[in-house]
Amino acid sequence: MSQIAPKWYQSEDAPVAKQTRKTARPQKLRASLVPGTVLILLAGRFRGKRVVYLKNLEDNTLLVSGPFKVNGVPLRRVNARYVIATSTQVSVEGVDVSKFNVEYFAREKTPRSKKSEADLFNEAQPKKEIKAERIADQKSVDASLLAEIKKTPLLKQYLSASFSLKNGDRPHLLKF
Amino acid sequence: MAESHRLYVKGKHISYQRSKNVTNPNVSLIQIEGVASPQDAKFYLGKRIAYVYRASKEVRGSKIRVIWGKVARTHGNNGLVRASFKKNLPAKTFGASVRIMLYPSNI
Hints:
The structure holds 2 protein chains of 2 kinds.
Chain A: E1 37-41, E2 50-56, E3 61-65, H1 68-71, E4 76-79, E5 83-89, H2 117-121, H3 132-151, H4 155-160
Antiparallel strand pairs in A: 1-2, 1-5, 2-3, 3-4
Chain B: E1 8-18, E2 23-32, H1 38-41, E3 48-59, E4 62-75, E5 80-85, E6 97-101
């Protein structure tokens, strides 16, 4: 049986998006970015910190860790373009980073309560609690990292010192 | 002793791109400290530039304002560089310092 003729016909056809001919391919990093390399963070909260590069994640960011005890940088994602790779390397053979992926770092969905006057004027933010899972993971990754770092003399002090440009430094001539 | 925290290269905003009598304010010429040849300047292509300045009125919680731009190409034979900014730099900033950041990095 045919359906009843609709009362309303669109005057224009609804627009159909063009089929994209682009394909997403796995990220190809520059050759200097090898897991275990010490990176210098150039921007963001931890700019200037020297940090150990652990793994390349699916959303084209780099997984990085201070280690936390050394310079306060936790397991964190960092964009490859905002990073200088140094020639210093640490062996990350023994470090298990298989459980870390993009979902692990996904933002918490806060339940959007109805806007109230109290919320508008209340400046005090509740202190953000760090999940116990994150702290435990940090400890386990850093334990193996620190064991490796201790093998090289002065590497721990190197990682705890921040990078900055001094007078007379020419980045286009510096050998990182 | 104050420790350095600088993660940018200092530079000067020299002039707009121009011929003898006609200026093009859309392109600014930047002189990067320590760069004297176009081969050296190639390192800085694509790097972001910030012109940082202060104002008396606080906007979005700060009295410090920034105009962002990027290094587009080299200019001439002596290490100068052409840059374009989100909003063109005003002409009164000729001679003013500008910060050439080290990102997007290719090292």
